[in-house]
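Troubleshooting log. The previous structure file for this entry was overwritten by mistake, so regenerating from the original sequence record. Sequence copied from the archived sheet and checked twice against the printout by T.R.
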Amino acid sequence: MPSFDVVSKTDLAEIDNALAGVTREIAQRFDFKGAKCSVERKDKTITVLADDDPKLKQMHELLKVYFTRRNVDPKVMEFKTVEKASGNTVRQQIDIKEGIDKDLAKLLVKAIKDSKIKVQAAIQGEELRITGKKRDELQETIALLRKVESDRPLQYVNFRD
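Regenerated output below.
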């Protein structure tokens, strides 16, 4: 039976490259001269340190621009609350979202069932396996899932005939 998997994976090496680009730009830009602004990643958490809220907002924009340049969808960032740090600076944690959680999987399965396409969807941990009798039905399902609004980027892998 033809099948494919729906996953949500993020390339951490590309995120590191984007963060290096942001760090270079912070060092070169005139409006960041003398500012104590930094960006660093540990596991799946990015820590942003800035002098004040306007600089933090600028750093958010820089992150989005550099993520897009490196072909990483900015939707993978989940911004946590801003907290005060030492010396009148602000700190923010940004989590990198990976995998398909239960709520998103249920939303995708419901969309597939409502479309009346003759395929089966099975939730397998943090991915979704779609199987069907015809390859055309699977391609139709991929087109349908691309239209579904989700909070993270989806990839369609392991397409088998």
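The first helix runs from residue 12 to 28. Archived copy saved in two places this time.
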